[in-house]
Amino acid sequence: MAKTIALLIGSLRKDSMNRKFAKALEKLAGDRLKFQEISIDLPAFNQDQESDPPALVATLRTQVLAADGVLIVTPEYNRSIPGLVKNALDWGSRPYGKNVWANKPVATCGASGGAIGSALAQAHLRNVLAYLDMPTLLQPEVYLHFTKDLIDDAGNISKEDTQKFLGGFVDKYVAWVEKHA
Ligand code: FNR
Q1: Range 159-164, long-range pairs (CB < 8 A, 24+ positions)
Q2: Residue 30 near ligand 1, beta carbon < 6 Å
């Protein structure tokens, strides 16, 4: 049966390359994974509200708790994690002792127009995921240098070597989620 994956896309941009990237991963996973997007368009974290969070945050918590795994597909902002991704992780981690991310198998990946392909964002992200107690798939690292027409809106990948590499990543991620089920 398909595993349910809580998908965080680290960009709200309409034409986001990371959204196209996520679509391609969904296609490669086929019927092995069922992606459920988790909105990162949340209010700013406020510890005064952590015990009775806004409705959107309550939804995030319910969705993550029900998921078999988490996948984060994110751009890099100023050599780090986009604030909205960190904000979502912070909301899900509180109140103390009620961290919904704990023990959820996770993988990170990301795309940018530069050669660095979100590497530094993911390095910072992995640091946070370790503290959140999330078993993190470490290899392969996926830093996608996104070029025009590499992936279309439907998730079709135009380059065969990229398709093969990402297919291998998805295979490993599926096995990782199954191992931690
Ligand atoms: C960027 N971008 C960027 N790219 C990169 O490789 N390293 C970086 O540190 C940054 N920093 C950065 C900061 C901010 C505030 C913005 C808006 C952009 C460029 C970024 O990779 C590019 O805008 C991507 O298109 C963002 O991903 P989406 O929105 O297309 O998924």
Answers
A1: 163/28
A2: no
